[in-house]
Model the fold of this input.
Amino acid sequence: MTLTVGDLKRHLAAYDDDFEIEFDGGLTFCRVKTRGDNLAMVEFNEFQAMLSPKFRKKFPEVKVAFCSVESDGSVVQEVGVPEL
Done:
């Protein structure tokens, strides 16, 4: 999904500067980085997991999954996907 900075500002205009923003799904904000002449990308600390073709076939409703890293540098491995 892409939206303009103006769109985002309009969405946030109703909130005072001291309101906190929380990202659903457990994502944690990292930074905003310029990726082109008129493109800024919001980055999160979690990285996108690769979904195997077998997984995608079994769970077509899962579009993306994110992984996090433990403090020792190991990747947090999920052991299963709940039935949806």
Notes: Residues 5-12 form the longest helix (8 residues). The longest strand covers residues 29-36. The helical segments are 5-12, 53-58.
